[in-house]
Amino acid sequence: MTIPALQSEGQITAEVNGCLGLITLNRPQALNALSLAMIRDLTTLLNAWAADPAIQAVAILGAARPGKAPAFCAGGDIRFFHAAVLAGDDSIEAFFTEEYRLNHLIHHYAKPFVALMDGIVMGGGMGISQGSKMRVLTEHSKLAMPETNIGLFPDVGGGHFLANCPGRSGEWLALTGDAIGAADAIELGLGDVFVPAQQMAGLVDALRSGEMPTAEHVVAAVMQRVDVAPPAPHFERLAQIDRHFGQADVPAILASLADDPDAWAQQTCATLLKRSPLMLAVTLEQVRRARSMSLADDLRMERDIVYRCFHLRPGTASETMEGIRALAVDKDHTPRWNPASLDGVTREQVLAFFESPWPANQHPLKDLA
């Protein structure tokens, strides 16, 4: 088996051990955030290995940062988004189209796909792990879809996998961007097994150099290290989450939380009040529409929304550009949302994000099944 030529200049590394293709996201200084070249390399590898009968399973992990907490993948490269928009660089369009195609490929991958989700797993990191057949978590795992924090929405199939979480927990995770640990992730259907962090080095060594003649050996290497996850604090709040996040719209959700004296409810209300009012409304609409959609239809919808995020208000006028500016460029953490409050958000403004800029037969994801 030969490894296909890669273009990301070492940001993706690949190796083969027996029947296993092992991928490492190798951009640790950026918490393994995805670049367009990385997305293309991942797609190249997965397509090549899908067609190779010698490869029976694939595993993916994030490169470690010596002396620092682990990170599987912190998401997409948001600084690239900001710079590309300012420069008029069309590669931002390729980024989202190819990323969503990669998400679809992983969800429908015909061979066992194992994601070692140690440390930070956010945004695009969720997109390349949630379709895995085996999602492995540790006590360091920190899962989130934090896009509303930058005036975006939980994309990369987030509508699909969050809508399929129990009750209204998907709305809670989508709107707040709150992070959850391993046990909550497993209870909410966003993870499969728990492996103690001290076992991860041994697991990676086994995958890299142990005997791997069949896919069953790959699965066994994981399963022999599986343990019981620690308690799931948020899962115990599911009834409370359902009560608040099952409300009809964002103003009703906020009012419900504000009326609940519980400290968690008050903190959650305070979190939502920091987010873009417009993008909260768009996100709630997205998740609730996705609940009745296939993954392919959800990804097409998300491709429409993300186009609108950067084009309804061009340049720095968009909520997403303002959110990225405040968080990652100027780092003043004081985004100037427009409108500044939910009172200014109209139904027409929200629905504009769901109008596709493409006819159905010209949609960039038209062929996803």
From TrEMBL:
It comes from Roseateles agri. Signal peptide: none annotated. InterPro entries: ClpP/crotonase-like_dom_sf, ECH_dom, HIBYL-CoA-H. Residues 21-354 form the Enoyl-CoA hydratase/isomerase domain. This is Enoyl-CoA hydratase/isomerase family protein. It comes from the Bacteria. SUPFAM superfamilies: ClpP/crotonase. Keywords: Hydrolase.
